[in-house]
Amino acid sequence: MPEGEVVFARPAALEDTPTHYCPGCTHGIIHRLIGEVIDELGIREITVGIAPVGCAVLAYHYFNFDTVEAAHGRAPAVATGIKRVSPENVVFTYQGDGDLAAIGTAEIVHAANRGENITVVFVNNAVFGMTGGQMAPTTLPGQVTTSTPTGRDVKVDGYPVKVAEILAQTTGAAYIARRTVTQPKYVRSCKKAIKTAFKTQLAGLGFALVEVLSTCSTNWGMSPMEALRWLDENMIPYYPLGDYKVIDEVKALP
Amino acid sequence: MAKVLMKGNEAIAEAAIRAGCDGYFGYPITPQTELLEYMSRRMPELGRAFVQGESEIASINMVLGAAAAGKRAMTSSSSPGVSLKQEGISFLAGNELPAVIVNIMRGGPGLGNVQPSQSDYFQATKGGGHGDYFPIVLAPSTVQEAIDFTILAFELADKYRNPAMILGDGSIGQIMEPVELPEVESKPPDKPWAVTGCKGREKNIIRSLYLLAGPLEARNVILQKKYREIEANEQRHAEFMLEGAEMVIVAYGTTGRVAQTAITRARDEGMPVGLFRPITLYPYPKDAISSLVEQARVFLVLEMSAGQMLEDVELAVKGTVPVEFQGWLGGRVPTPSEVTQTIKEIRTKYLK
Amino acid sequence: MPTIVIDEDRCKGCQLCTTVCPKDLVTMAENFNAKGYHPAKLEDPEGECTGCTMCALMCPDVAITVYR
Ligand SMILES: Cc1ncc(C[n+]2csc(CCOP(=O)(O)OP(=O)(O)O)c2C)c(N)n1
Ligand code: SF4
Ligand code: SF4
Fold first, then answer.
1. Which among C20, C60, C65 is the nearest to A6, CB-wise?
2. Is the dihedral of CA B194, A99, C17, A192 positive or negative?
3. Please, which pLDDT band fits residue B348 given cuts at 50, 70 and 90?
4. Domain that holds residue B196
5. pLDDT reading at B232 higher than 80
6. I need a labelling partner for A244 at 20 to 30 A (CA). Which of A98, B112, B305, B339 fits?
7. Chains near C (3 or more Cβ pairs under 8 Å)
8. Residues B58 and B18 in one domain
């Protein structure tokens, strides 16, 4: 054991369990950031997480706090039910783009519009990871997936859904941001955004969502390093990073 | 206790409140909307949760969340809406979460109409969603029963950690009757499995996913054991003029009520006919029906459907005695005279 | 002295940590770990690691602990 102070280690809100994620899958980084934020805010013992259907379906094995599984896309409704009867709990959902932006579109839009006092971490990796890389609503134009073998044809499949932009239009939303985790500076910024999203809930200010652009090297058919680069070069131009809605009360948060 | 005049839908809502319902989540649909409207007034007054969800799917999943948090939760709807809730009901069963679902049935299939019907029997009692599970199903035939069974539904749901359903037809939802509203003494049991924050204990996980065949089988074996226990302990039914009855009418809900009037008339005319009225549709009171084959020479099943409960009666009777059927489709409620006429015909065929 | 410890058996050999080290101290080992991946390793004979946490920030498997 080296001497000196530990300045970086596993957060207590994350179990010491190896994940089933593919090598280099940035779901792992995003899990860790949530764990760090929950530790720093000292809310592990009052937090309830909602796991989605998607590659993160087993998130309840990795988070070290109470968790519930939701049916595909229904996490915002499940979170609503919990938060409405137990407002003293901190409630968040963790959802992929198939879960949130395809089958669960109604649930997320209405949770945001009600200003539901919950936090959402939305992982946009431009494919359905778990089922083997089919087109997601967020798949880029021309992107080859297992269900768009010649590339997404926007005339047939429509255009990629810009979740942060759409939800920022809902009056009920308090904080909507888009981040990524492909570089250390982005990881730091993403953590800050996730922290703001939880603080928004703790202050009772309403709906907060952080969209995180994430890789799926396995289904993109790339090495993990190539996937980071591909995301930076292709996804960020279509899905610009930034804050899409920050109400004044959130801006004023300490 | 003084009686008050109440509409079925509102009576169910008030009963749920008295049973300690902490959260109601619903979506409007005729003929149950008064239930939702009543809750929208009363729940906030009491500091409890009311949300009009964006759909029945959202509403049942809000119920799932509230139930997971260890609170008493309820939703109500009518046939097309209950079809949408099936995903959530399957998850409630798989997660072993207690909750109450009210289905005030209307005519189907599809949009059908808003008249009373009993054509969701299969959906309600055989699971309805995917997987091997059963909700507990209670069928009121009066507004008073709607009240009593709603309270019972919360208690049974908690006792077995399973969804429980009130299966009424549009007529139960809409009629007004004088009722007694009981004070509910029973408290929900402790729910150490609930997700309330892990302070002072290990974390709780609520899930239905078991990726490997072995663990999922083991999980299902536990669930099936519970269903056998429910079947052994909770079969309920009511009887009317069964003494000496050679013809046994089996009917539930509003149809049971109509049959009762018809039977009274038939008895006046000296016909040996009585009523067996199932109260629990799951677990089906099959043991009591089976024991009636000693006395009955013919069974007559009446339903506002094409013959759904009929199959459960046939299973209980096991071919020992003939089982006749009369059904009303399209949201039409039978009249007592129609039933009396049928009783006469069956009597001529079997009892002379 | 600042340094990092890589939990070799946690590592999935994804290389995300290797390109971000400002001093290029993290590389992939030749050997295989129990999972069958080439794990990342720290090569720091001169004691150059500053404990900046860059590598740890990028690790999806929380395999890196940083000391300072
Ligand atoms: C009702 C329903 N439909 C379809 C599926 C199959 N399914 C499982 S995961 C998934 C997509 C997940 O993709 P995403 O939300 O993008 O998450 P990722 O796996 O990429 O992290 C689908 C379609 C399901 N489990 N339930
Ligand atoms: S399939 Fe894609 S999203 Fe799923 S774990 Fe692998 S890399 Fe991650
Ligand atoms: S980032 Fe983590 S898992 Fe990937 S190679 Fe480095 S230590 Fe191993």
1. C65
2. negative
3. very high
4. 4-233
5. yes
6. A98
7. A
8. yes
